[in-house]
Amino acid sequence: ISGTAALHLALKIINISARDVVMIQSFTFCGTTNPVSYLDAEIVFIDSEEDTWNMCPIALQNALEEYKHKSVKAIMPVHLYGMPAKMNEIQNIANQYGVPIIEDAAEALGSHYKSQKCGTFGEMAALSFNGNKIITTSGGGALVSKNKNYIDQALFLATQARDKAPHYQHSQVGYNYRMSNIVAGIGRGQMKIVDERVAQRRANNKRYHEFFADVDGITFQTEPGPDYFSNYWLTAILIDPQLTEGLTREDVKVALDSENIESRPLWKPMHMQPLHEGAKFYGTGVCEELFEKGLCLPSGSNLTEEQFDRIFTTLKKIFNK
Ligand SMILES: *Cc1c(COP(=O)(O)O)cnc(C)c1O
After folding, report:
1. What Å distances lie between residue 147 and 7, 23, 59, 265, CA to CA?
2. Distance of CA 303 to the CA centre of its chain
3. Residue 78 Cα, ligand 1 centroid: separation in angstroms?
């Protein structure tokens, strides 16, 4: 299984088909959207807001209002880079329109909002244990739900939808999405060190904050208040060329690259992808600007002092510090 497969199962379980609509945060990885495409449902993309960079409740409300006579079957917020989305507002709107939430918590294991863990807000949620995530089983993922019926159905579908019979009998299409016992064993070990990994990622984030405190034109994806706790899976910054004497996100990336330091642009919004050309988008373009100005800094849990020295020496040169 993977995070993507977990989302596919979740959508199958609530019976999404080609006649249905799913509302998804545009600012995300294709792992959120591809499972909806597998089922040929229509995707309506929702903008981000500036506080968390996640699903904008106002844009969501506008989209739901316009689609209230269509078959909207799910809302999919994402907790990007570990930052919890505004789940209170999103849940209130979802309840108002009677649409279930399927949460993409692939990047947010260990994060919480109002003391509630990310991955426990939706009817179902997906976690990912892919190699780059906060804990990993090399590749893997999990479907999370409080609803026993959903979990039973997920286990059934993930093991080739085998009916209860002494022989191999099937009355519907299933998947081979079961996690192997070796992967599960690694995962159980990894679960014990989640807190440690979160602490390491948050320490990385703090170091970058301290470094950039006196640099103009740099802002961070930051917890908007005490209700939010991010695992800071990746530290993401915005670079405003109007305040950095023209230095752009791309300039910084190229300069880091030349020292063999990897940084990455933020996710390119899905409504801007060739794959989703012509899809509906609700919002004012906040996520487009985030994409234009944003950069993920090196954020591994295992960054050494020497590596940080090298990163900061290079950044000092780039920012004339
Ligand atoms: C990693 C990721 C996924 C997919 O997880 P896999 O385990 O790689 O399939 C989905 N959504 C987001 C936001 C992710 O970062």
Report:
1. 15, 22, 29, 37
2. 22
3. 10
Atom of ligand 1 nearest to the CA of 4: 9
Atom of ligand 1 minimally distant from the CA of 107: 15
Cite the beta strand spans of 72-202 per DSSP E: 72-76, 102-104, 112-113, 116-117, 124-128, 141-144
Distance 130 CA to ligand 1 centre (A): 7
- pTM for this model (two decimals): 0.96
Please tell me the distance from the alpha carbon of residue 275 to that of residue 61, in angstroms, as a whole number. Answer: 25
Cite the beta strand spans of the chain per DSSP E: 21-25, 42-46, 72-76, 102-104, 112-113, 116-117, 124-128, 141-144, 218-220, 228-229, 236-239, 264-265, 280-282, 294-296
Decide: 3 and 141 in contact? Cβ < 8 Å. yes
d(CA 236, CA 201) in angstroms, rounded, equals 12
**What residues are in contact with ligand 1 under a 6 Å CB criterion?**
2-4, 28-29, 31-32, 78, 104, 106-107, 128, 130, 141
**Model confidence pLDDT, tens digit, residues 114-166:** 999 999 999 999 999 999 999 999 999 999 999 999 999 999 999 999 999 99
Residue with CA at minimum distance from ligand 1 atom 5: 3
Q: Quote the CA–CA distance of 245 and 320 in Å, as a whole number.
A: 11
Do 183 and 140 meet the contact criterion of CB atoms below 8 Å apart? yes
